[in-house]
Amino acid sequence: xxxxxxxxxxRLEGHGKIEIFLDERGDVDxxxxxxxxxxxxxxxxxxxxxxxxxxxTNRICGVCPEAHHMAAAKAAxxxxxxxxxxxxxxxxxxxxxxxxxxxxxxxxxALGGPDFFVGPDAPVAERNILxxxxxxxxxxxxxxxxxxxxxxxxxxxxxxxxIHPCTSVPGGLTSGITEDERAEIEAIGRRMIDFAGxxxxxxxxxxxxxxxxxxxxxxxxxxxxxxxxxxxxxxxxVNFYDGRVRVxxxxxxxxxxYAPAEYTDWIAEHVxxxxxxxxxxxx
Length: 283
Prior knowledge:
The protein is of the alpha+beta class. It has ten helices and ten strands. It has helices at residues 41-44, 53-57, 65-80, 86-111, 114-117, 129-136, 138-159, 179-208, 211-218, 263-266; strands spanning 2-6, 17-22, 28-34, 168-169, 172-173, 228-232, 244-248, 254-258, 267-270, 279-282.
């Protein structure tokens, strides 16, 4: 049996590699996606004061620390049985919205985008953010950089730091924002709406207009039917900060809905001996 190793996998946060085993005929027998690093947050958080969790867990990731910071802060709220006042909830949601924009910008242009904007047949050295910027042009590249910079600035204004925010505590935040900062954030938000439209137009022009790309995206090779879940508010609309978790089946029909505190009734996980990655699944 032949063993092929792709190590490291690039354009992701963390470490990963792929092991491919071929049979005697040269066909793929089995494939493993491996995460070879042990993070250990579940263990070294045990026994520490709950107030430390928002600042500890946001070190899990340097790309999405806001998500871990917010999840830990909300868990700390629940431990104390307290609901933050409305201004604090709105500021937390605003921080998370800024993170949402910059995180998706990172994926769209730097992580997933190079394979489509530059092309899967392009030299490996060109399939990166620099290759994308060369493809979309200097002016468009400036908008991408501005989007990330501006949204990180919003995170810093509300969260205290552009990376690894630190202001969320049980029951709210340690500080608010000024009227000038509010106006600045609003202006950034309006620019980001325009930037989102620009990004969709770029995707249509450079990716969906390419028949080979479109067939690859919509074909069976990359089609994986599964269940999906996400937060919805009391009106059933998407919400990235708070709400109930809605589960939708592969057919698009609603499978169920639960409060975040009930997640152990719906979600479980198992481990495999060949990776440190855990495998959550829907019960």
